[in-house]
């Protein structure tokens, strides 16, 4: 089953002479339990792709479907992100004034779930990824890897099945980065879908499929895992 | 609900993390709450309800009775009382038996007289009573020593005497201090009490009911209004315990007591100014949290959630500020009362008027939420992907919002028109009402004003150019700070001009017919030998002082006339009585020899100091006598210059009056030396005859204007410095990449500081300049109702120049200088790819 589908998506920033074509007719599908990596040089449109996939930005043309719903018809995109899509960024992922558990609770609380239940759900996810001991620590008391684990837990809390990760290993050393990718792969095995933006072939090798972006278009794609690079 | 819980949790933690910024915001929101709460608590505590104050007035007695002077009639009733003096058939003072008969068998009276005694250090209030009588319990409490017996006195601590000391009152034998007594509510009162005191009672109309001989009465039944009416007929003024306690008590609210000016200023200050001041600080918070809010949006936070999170900041900070300020205000008010009482106020039991305090605390909370409103709306509008990518937000197409500017301009014009109309009203509130649209209009116009003022940037040196350009580009933070400075300056300027005008008007309206510092001894009707004795005693007591003589005017039947005329002084009608005398009196009034005036007086002409009253070489007088119609008399007159600017009046030559059929008798003395307060002259002349009045001309008194001006300036300094600094700190944080770039291309650290100081100067300077214009309009509009007293009285407009220059020029320079010496730390910044 397809969780995320982009069909002929273009995104133009600005207009007239200052117009920048970030994406030019990109089509891409991510299936259930699939880990898809997006690679490409700076300015190739990777982050724009991720923003469009989660409804943080709207395409200039083309269609984005999440769980079969056309995002152009979804009025409350924030609610969609609370319930269907989770984001993980390279850094500054967590709210520094909230504990790890409170960070994970946040999307559920924003969705109107009572604090007690939200905390229970957050603890369940943290336990699943082996981070329950971090629950009451503040972000500045966590290592980079621990912070990313908590961010992943937050992206998965509730019923969310699509995880959009923008260079989640960018600020980590190699062993920690490997650990994060192992975690993402495990979540995929448990049924989640992950769209991973990275420019490290080492991490892209964990993916079921790799898409190469260049100047806003898909330049190449490997349908088989890059086993050789792992 | 759980979203609100999460938002409040975020705010709580954020407030703690950014403690400095939070404290600044709380200070700005809390300050007005604290001041108003403190004032209300201090007022409620220092005000005595009838129950609280009755013990110090009546002791344990049921009523206090004061014997009024012969010929005075009094009628006291539930609606107040009326007095009249000079009745035809003065009755003898009431006898205790008459009173006892009226109040019923079993009534006990103890003598209780109030007045003052004259000590070398000044007049001191005095109670002549037996303090050991149980009826007086609670009026004064013994702190040290013992209660006074015959020839003894108890004193309050303010007199600085010890038991055993001797007190030497004028007009009586020395009294020995037997003990120290405390007044229950007035710790600083200078009071003595004893069974045998040489009391002086000031028998002016205002002192009729409070001073004089009398009794405390213990009655078998409560004293009713019927009893009061009956006692009034005996010439007694009555304070009854039961009637005082049954009178409905409405504690005066602070809002009601001062003029509307206080309320209007309080309302504007309490809401608009803190909102504007806290605005930049909330904007700082928003700018710093943009990324955090974008993260939340990425996790599913809607625009509403982001608005809620920023508003929760206002709720938490406003709530904390209101709570803290209310607590501190209550504590401050309670602590302040004894301190104020030490300067002469009074103190009652602690009183916290919750009914007024809670709405004020709610206003504090409201201010926090309103101040966070604009940042909250901006938070809801921010573009998540742009923020996450670290790109600069898209700038608005126009440098200033057209609609808001038009609305602002319309409001300013409307306010100006309203101010012109308000100037014609006698109520103070209208100029204030008219100032609101001007102020709100200017706040709406501020984006345009910032853009317009920014057009000078190309002509400035580099640091200032960078500063001004940055201020104009980052409108949201600049506008709020400029508007805050504008509002504070406008209020301070308006109050400054109004206060100074009132002070000047008060000073100008003072007029007197005698030079400042001179002494006048007026005799009443008395036989010539008494006058001779009085004159001799005055000459003996005032050695070396040249005394000029003034005369009474009588007709053939012996009726005494006053030669009166009415003049206008600074627009106010003043009734004057012309003096009658010779060259020595003329010299006294002019303070010098004026040959022309002296010649005119010698030739039988009046010398007049009120120039407007001399028409065609004549002054018209009304010769008034009791119970007869006035006579009009025209006297040839010349205009002359008196000794002092504030002096008016006229001097009539005796020769003219005697030619007109009057006789003149010397009954007044004037000299240019003011005797000291404890000079024996006062008592000595009174011993010769009680028909003498001795007075010293004090000259114009300074009002309290300047003090208030400097209080205002102090408040303006705190608010402007606070508001400008919040905005400057935000600017400095925002400009880090620019400052780092400047540093990289070789700018000195002082250049960086100059850039930050330049922003401060731009914000404070622009705000102060526009605020000056707005405040001047309101101040001038206010000056008219504050300085006119009836038709024909022109308004006084006075500009307090040192105050205005300090406010409008000095303050922006001060905050810029402060910014210049504050470290502008250049840091290496991470540039988003």
What descriptors fit this protein?
heterodimer, A: 230 residues, alpha/beta, Rossmann fold, 2 domains, six-stranded mixed β-sheet, four-stranded antiparallel β-sheet, 7 helices, 27% strand, B: 833 residues, alpha+beta, 4 domains, eleven-stranded mixed β-sheet, ten-stranded mixed β-sheet, 24 helices
Sheet of most strands of chain B: 11 strands, mixed
How are helices and strands ordered from N to C of chain A? EEEHEEHEHHHEHEHEE
Q: Which secondary-structure class do the elements of chain B indicate?
A: alpha+beta
Rg of chain A, rounded, reads 17 Å
Care to count the β-strands of chain A? 10
Describe the overall structure:
The complex is a heterodimer of chains A (230) and B (833). With 230 residues, chain A is α/β, with parallel strands linked by helices. Chain A has helices at residues 46-53, 77-83, 100-110, 115-128, 144-156, 174-189, 201-204, and strands at residues 2-13, 20-31, 35-39, 61-66, 69-70, 85-88, 162-166, 193-197, 209-214, 217-222. Chain A folds into two domains: 2-84 and 161-229, Rossmann fold (3-Layer(aba) Sandwich); 94-158, no CATH class. Chain A has seven helices and ten strands. Chain A is globular, with a radius of gyration of 17 Å. In chain A, 51% of the residues are buried. The longest helix of chain B has 40 residues, at 303-342. Chain B is 51% helix and 17% strand. With 833 residues, chain B is α+β, with helices and mostly antiparallel strands. The chains are: A alpha/beta (230), B alpha+beta (833). The A-B interface holds A 42, 47-48, 51, 54, 56-57, 76, 78-83, 85-87, 89, 92-98, 102, 105-107, 109-115, 118, 154-155 and B 1-3, 5-6, 9-10, 13-14, 16-17, 291-292, 295-303, 305, 384-385, 388-389, 833.
């Amino acid at each position: 089953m397809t969780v995320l589908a982009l069909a002929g998506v273009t995104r133009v920033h600005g207009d007239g002479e200052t117009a920048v074509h970030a994406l030019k007719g990109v089509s891409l599908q991510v299936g259930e339990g699939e880990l898809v990596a997006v690679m490409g040089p700076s300015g190739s449109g990777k982050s724009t792709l991720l923003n469009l996939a989660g409804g943080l930005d709207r395409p200039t043309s083309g269609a984005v479907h999440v769980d079969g719903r056309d995002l152009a018809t979804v009025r409350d995109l924030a609610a969609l992100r609370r319930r269907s899509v989770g984001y993980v960024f390279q850094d500054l992922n967590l709210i520094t004034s909230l504990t790890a558990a409170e960070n994970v609770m946040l999307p559920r609380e924003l969705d109107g779930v009572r604090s007690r239940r939200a905390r229970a759900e957050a603890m369940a996810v943290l336990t699943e990824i082996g981070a329950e001991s971090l629950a009451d620590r503040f972000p500045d008391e966590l290592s980079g890897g621990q912070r990313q684990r908590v961010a992943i837990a937050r992206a998965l809390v509730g019923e969310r099945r699509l995880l959009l990760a923008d260079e989640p290993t960018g600020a980590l050393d190699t062993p920690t980065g490997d650990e994060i990718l192992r975690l993402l792969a495990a979540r995929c095995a448990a049924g989640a879908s992950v769209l991973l933006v990275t420019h490290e072939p080492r991490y892209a090798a964990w993916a079921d499929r790799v898409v190469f972006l260049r100047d806003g278009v898909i330049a190449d794609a490997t349908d088989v895992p890059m086993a050789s690079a792992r | 609900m759980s979203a609100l819980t999460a938002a409040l949790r975020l705010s709580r933690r954020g407030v703690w993390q950014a403690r400095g910024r939070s404290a600044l915001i709380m200070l700005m929101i809390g300050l007005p709450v604290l001041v108003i709460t403190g004032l209300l608590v201090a007022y409620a505590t220092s005000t005595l309800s009838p129950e609280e104050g009755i013990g110090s007035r009546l002791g344990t007695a049921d009523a206090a009775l004061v014997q009024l002077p012969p010929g005075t009639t009094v009628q006291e009733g539930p609606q107040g009382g009326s007095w009249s003096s000079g009745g035809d058939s003065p009755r003898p003072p009431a006898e205790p038996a008459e009173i006892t008969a009226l109040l019923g068998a079993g009534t006990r009276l103890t003598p209780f007289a109030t007045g003052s005694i004259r000590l070398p250090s000044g007049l001191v209030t005095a109670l002549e009573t037996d303090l050991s009588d149980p009826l007086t319990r609670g009026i004064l409490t013994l702190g040290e020593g013992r209660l006074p017996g015959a020839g003894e006195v108890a004193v309050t601590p303010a007199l600085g005497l010890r038991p055993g000391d001797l007190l030497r009152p004028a007009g009586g034998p020395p009294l020995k201090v037997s003990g120290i007594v405390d007044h229950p509510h007035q710790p600083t009162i200078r009071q003595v009490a004893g069974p045998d005191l040489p009391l002086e009672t000031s028998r002016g109309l205002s002192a009729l009911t409070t001073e004089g001989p009398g009794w405390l009465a213990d009655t078998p039944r409560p004293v009713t209004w019927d009893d009061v009416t009956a006692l009034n007929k005996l010439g007694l003024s009555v304070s009854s315990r039961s009637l005082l306690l049954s009178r409905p008590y409405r504690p005066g609210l602070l809002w009601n007591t001062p003029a509307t000016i206080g309320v209007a200023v309080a309302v504007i200050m309490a809401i608009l100014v803190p909102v504007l001041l806290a605005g930049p600080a909330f904007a700082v918070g928003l700018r710093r949290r943009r990324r955090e809010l974008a993260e939340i949006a990425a996790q599913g936070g809607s625009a509403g959630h982001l608005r809620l999170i920023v508003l929760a900041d206002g709720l938490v900070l406003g709530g904390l500020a209101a709570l803290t300020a209310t607590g501190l205000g209550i504590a401050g008010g309670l602590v302040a009362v004894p301190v104020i009482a030490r300067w002469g106020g009074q103190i009652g039991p602690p009183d916290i008027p919750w009914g007024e305090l809670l709405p004020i605390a709610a206003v504090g909370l409201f201010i926090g939420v309103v101040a966070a409103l604009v940042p909250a709306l901006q938070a809801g509008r921010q573009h998540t992907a742009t923020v996450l990518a670290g790109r600069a937000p898209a700038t608005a197409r126009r440098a200033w919002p057209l609609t808001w500017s038009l609305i602002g301009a319309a409001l300013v014009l409307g306010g100006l028109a309203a101010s012109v109309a308000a100037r014609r009203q006698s109520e103070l509130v209208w100029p204030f009402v008219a100032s609101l649209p001007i102020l709100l209009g200017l706040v709406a116009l501020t984006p345009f004003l910032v853009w317009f003022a920014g057009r000078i940037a190309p002509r400035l040196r580099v640091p200032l150019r960078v500063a001004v350009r940055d201020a104009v580009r980052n409108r949201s933070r600049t506008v709020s700070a400029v508007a805050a400075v504008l509002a504070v300056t406008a209020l301070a300027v308006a109050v400054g001009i109004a206060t100074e005008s009132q002070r000047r008007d008060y000073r100008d309206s003072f007029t007197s017919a005698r030079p400042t510092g001179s002494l006048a001894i007026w005799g009443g009707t008395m036989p010539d030998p008494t006058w001779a004795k009085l004159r001799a005693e005055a000459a003996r007591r005032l050695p070396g002082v040249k005394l000029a003589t003034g005369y009474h005017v009588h007709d053939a039947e012996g009726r005494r006339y006053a030669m009166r005329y009415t003049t206008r002084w600074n627009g106010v009608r003043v009734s004057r009585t012309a003096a009658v005398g010779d060259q020595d009196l003329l010299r006294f009034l002019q303070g010098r020899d004026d040959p022309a005036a002296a010649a005119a007086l010698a030739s039988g002409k009046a010398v007049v100091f009120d120039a407007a009253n001399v028409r065609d070489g004549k002054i018209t007088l009304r010769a008034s006598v009791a119970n007869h119609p006035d006579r009009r008399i025209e006297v040839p007159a010349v205009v002359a210059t008196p000794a002092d600017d504030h002096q008016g009046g006229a001097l009539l030559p005796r020769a003219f009056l005697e030619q007109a059929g009057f006789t003149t008798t010397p009954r007044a003395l004037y000299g240019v030396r003011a005797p000291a307060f404890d000079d024996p002259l006062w008592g000595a002349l009174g011993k010769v005859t009680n028909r003498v009045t001795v007075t010293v001309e004090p000259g114009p008194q300074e009002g309290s204007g300047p003090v208030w001006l400097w209080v205002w300036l102090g408040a303006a300094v705190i608010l402007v410095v606070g508001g400008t600094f919040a905005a400057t700190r935000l600017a400095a944080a925002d400009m880090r990449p620019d400052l780092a770039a400047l540093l990289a291309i070789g700018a000195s650290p002082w250049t960086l500081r100059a850039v930050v100081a330049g922003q401060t100067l731009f914000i404070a300077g622009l705000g102060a300049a526009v605020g000056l214009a707005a405040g001047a309009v309101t101040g001038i509009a206010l000056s008219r109702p504050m300085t006119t007293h009836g038709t024909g009285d022109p308004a006084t407009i006075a500009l307090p120049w040192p105050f205005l220059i300090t406010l409008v020029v000095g303050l922006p320079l001060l905050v810029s200088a402060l910014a210049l010496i504050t470290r502008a730390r250049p840091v290496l910044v991470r540039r988003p790819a």
